[in-house]
User: Fold this.
Amino acid sequence: MEKDIVKYIGEVLSDLYVVDPKSVTISLERTKPGIEGDFTVVVFPFTKYSKKSPMDTAKEIGVSLKSRCEDIDSYNVIQGFLNITMTHEYWVKRLNNLASPSKKKDDSAKPLIMVEFSSPNTNKPLHLGHLRNNFLGDSVSRIIKAAGNNVMKVNLVNDRGIHICKSMIAWLKWGNGITPESAGKKGDKLVGDFYVLFSNKYKEEIAQLKAQGLSDEEAEKKSALMAETREMLQKWEAGDEEVRRVWKMMNEWVYAGFDETYKKIGISFDRIYYESQTYLLGKSIVQKGLDRGVFVRDADTSVWIDLTNEGLDRKILLRSDGTTVYMTQDIGTAAQRFDEYHPDKMIYVVGNEQDYHFAVLKKVVQRLGEDYYDKIFHLSYGMVELPEGKMKSREGTVVDADDLVADMIETARAISEENGKLGDLSEAERNRIIEMIAIGALKYFILKVDPKKQMVFNPKESIDFNGNTGPFIQYTHARICSILRKAKEQNINLTKRISEDVHLLDKEVSIISNLCSFSKVVEESAKKFDPGQVANYVYNLCKEFNQFYHDYSILNENDPNVILLRLRLSQQVAKTIKEGMELLGIDVPEVM
Assistant:
């Protein structure tokens, strides 16, 4: 309906100032709190046509606009801004229309956006940092799909390389044939233990070498452990059967562990790529670039690209022993994806410590002459820390994702029991909702923060039933569902159209206006790849509804038209909460 107001403004400009409406940008925004009005029109751009002051231009447009549009009740002008107040009938129509089902659009012409996220290494389990990546990637995918795009969620598993060999070496040297079954441990956790063990043994070796008088650099070069690891990587790339057997076995342990964690946190993918299947393509592309003079080979036979004249640096693409690096694999994966699916944009959800890597990737692809270089976008996000500081995988100081989820569930259980919530439910239903609260608290706390910002995760703060938290929003949804159940018990027909004669309170107008802005919030969130905008919108909607619920009765009103209005308002708030939280990958309960 705001489009109709913009259309009327265009007609007014055409009549008053003989301006083609298509040549003018008309900005219609929600009026700021504390100022009378529902919408504000910025009139400054129109003064060049009116040849009058902003104040006089706004008044002139306001008079003409009100005469044309019956939905406008009044207007005022403040410092050249035209503030429009809509009639109550307008807002009732908006609420009635919100409840009407929308038509499904044809998907065939929508842009295809591919979103890569998760991208774990198969040498350790998922941890808190991975959770921000997964939640962000999944939510961004949902939001850009809701904004009118086709979306493909992909995961690139880093299943080969020097870091994988470290876990393999440790298992072969000190594992004594242990398996996840014999250890009674998830496979990803077991392999992660060996990665930490390798790091500790390597530190001991370096310390011993330094005690013999060697420098740090000399000790690292003389390390027998690292020499074995590099040799294993060479054997892997050469297809050594025994190395490949151990690699395949240990990776399968990790995949089983990953699948269990993904299921628990509600993450899925449309396509999974493996570095072991894409690195050779990258290697062949590097060779072609070398043949064409795009890359250079150093005296030690390593291959590089020189980007110093573009404000970057020299970047290695192949080591002197012929083995590949991350960049090689990303070159191959990008080529494969654009060849297979021709996406309109390829979004990489990766932490900001890899900003340089993706700047180089785009330049490499551009130098190779591929026109999709400008379709590559790095969604860079800040790291997650704990109140006690930064986590380190190789030192074993990370917060394991499974352990964190389990702790969140127990915390949610304790708080629910303390508050007397869920007491009337069966044990199975209680457990289901407690898990929903725990996962919701975890996701919401992480997603409400601007992705670009570094954040500190505080488990206890995240699961509070008050404030800007997932449980607060979930509880609001459950409260509204309870109201609607009582209405059903009283045989109130919620499908009836609300009478446009009903009088609205200012707070009711505010809530309806807030509901109407949801689609714009989703569009803006999609443009900026920021789920935090959706999260904070839903929180503010809940806060506003709870204040309304506190101040006014819903079911105990005398006027049945008012009861219907407030029930439909409540129903639409619950629907919007559910849709908004779904965009964050969070479920909301109907009882709580």
